[in-house]
Amino acid sequence: MGVTVVHGATVVTMDPARRVIPDGAVAFSDVVLEVGSARDVLAAHPDAQVVDCRGSIVVPGFVNTHSHLFQTLLKGLGDDRVLSDWFTSMTGPSAVELTVEDVYAGALHGCAEALTTGTTTLLDFMYVHPRPGLGAAVVQAMDDSGIRGVMARGYMTAGADVGVPDPLIQSLDTALADAAQLIEEHNRPGSRVTVGLAPCMSWSVDLPTLTETRALADATGALVTMHLSESPFDVEESIRRFGSRDVPLAAETGLLGPDLLAAHCVQVDPTDIGLLADSDTRVSHNPCSNLYLGSGFAPVPAMQRAGITVGLASDGPASSSNHSMLQAMKFAALLHKGVHRDPEVMTAEKALEMATIDGARAVGMADSIGSLEVGKRADLVVLDATNLCVTPLHAAVSALVYSHRGDEVSRVYVDGRLVVEGGTLTTVPEADVRTRSAAAARGLADRAGTSRFATRPWRSMV
Fold first, then answer.
1. For the chain, what is the mean pLDDT?
2. E-only strand ranges, 29-164
3. Which positions ≥6 away from 440 have C-beta within 8 Å?
4. 78, 175, 241, 424: which has the fewest Cβ within 10 Å?
5. Domain boundaries, the chain
6. 394 within 8 A of 83, measured Cβ to Cβ
């Protein structure tokens, strides 16, 4: 691969010194070769392909630490419902009807949406498997789109008594055998798309599911992720089923640790925070989804003060409506300022860290992504900073978090490969992606009987 230099932009490096370089440049092949002033980098690489990025901001690609790509097909069907009702009335029945084509179409659309809004790494928590081959369909979509991805092979082994549809409940042996096979196929040095493990949530698993997940993770080195304390229902059900809250349950079964990414953690208490911190468990913060479902807000500042690594995420589009990490950054910053009545409790700089280097730490990839540093993978994003929403531009980081909408993304590179140019995906035709996902979404809603949620009566007040 030849050398490319993007130059003339404000480069927000996210390196340990948090350098912001006006009139900066980045030289890269599949890895970053040099970051510095445009004059110095251009002089050092006279034979490079040169891309003039004046009037732009260059950042490391965003890291989305939690999503459900199949939910791309369910946008707008679950409005105004708490998590348990949202799952039992809409998401669960829809998931039962998923086909391999549905999952591929939804995942490809979700990856395209993520890339064109600046996300270069995405963790998909794929927890529904009513028929074989769905995890492989996600992996294929990630590979075809050009994104860096983790397909966390999820499973539900219990929960019929609280509304988990029978076709979504798998035997533990079946789930782990499929997960182990996928891990063997894809988790190799240099793989852009890898596979993790994802026991779903406390009310959809049993104790052997957690202990056997830990054993397989230890044996394979695979990342583990699980929904923890997302809603009051999660905590209440864990106490009813197991006699303890779900974070202590994860501790007791050996699941906590630096290779566990705990999604949400909205309802954690001080004891839970202590357990997460002591075990170096990482957390995925999903502000848009938590607000959409009325689940509450995670005590992120308290977790960060305790030393917990907290990454940022969109969550699935059935509860966040899109994959925009720029939107997630703004919500994360504003939410915590508001609920704490403290404008300094969450800064724009910290929100950007959560979307980049902290997200990279959360998924165990901080040595290779999350910042623009020599030797790291060449995952970077170029955003236009000349439009009316962003200008007048005083501070690049503030603009990224508070002013950018997402459609300003002009170029995206993953492993040095140009996957978005002029705001348009280069790897697969966007029109085909939209046509395919629209057809899959209509067919799925008709089969599942969830199309009725799209034509509900008008409700101004509840």
1. 96
2. 32-37, 49-52, 56-60, 62-67, 119-126, 148-155
3. 73, 101, 102, 105, 106
4. 424
5. 4-60+369-425, 62-362
6. no
- Which tens digits make up the pLDDT trace of 311-330? 999 999 999 889 999 999 99
Is residue 347 helix, strand or coil?
coil
C-alpha–C-alpha distance, residues 458 and 462, integer Å: 11
**Contact status, residue 28 vs residue 13, Cβ threshold 8 Å:** no
Summary count for the chain: helices (H), strands (E): 18, 17
Q: Which two tokens stand for residue 185?
A: 């196929």
Helix, coil or strand: residue 118: coil
Strands (E), 376-438: 380-384, 409-414, 417-421, 424-425
The structure tokens 């907290």 sit at 310
Strand partners, 284: 263, 311
Q: What is the mean pLDDT of residues 442-449?
A: 95
**Local structure of residue 458 (DSSP, 8 states):** P
Residue 437 sits at φ, ψ, to 5 deg, of: -70, -35
Q: What one-character DSSP code corresponds to residue 257?
A: S
Residue among 178, 66, 67, 166 nearest 133 (CA): 178
Q: How far is CA 322 from the centre of its chain?
A: 11
- Tokens 């994860």: give the residue: 250
Distance separating alpha carbons of residues 150 and 363, to the nearest angstrom:
9
pLDDT attached to residue 419: 98
Query: Is the N-terminal amide bond of 392 cis, ω within 30° of 0?
Result: yes
How far is residue 65's CA from residue 113's CA, in Å, rounded to a whole number? 15
User: Which residues 6+ apart lie within 8 Å of 115 measured at CB?
Assistant: 145, 146, 147, 412, 414, 419, 420, 425
- Does residue 462 surpass a pLDDT of 80? no
Three-state DSSP class for residue 312: strand
How many residues are given for the chain? 462
Overall CATH class of domain 62-362: alpha beta
Q: How far, in Å, CA of 244 to CA of 247, rounded?
A: 8
Architecture of domain 4-60+369-425: Roll (2.30)
Name the token pair of 336: 């915590």
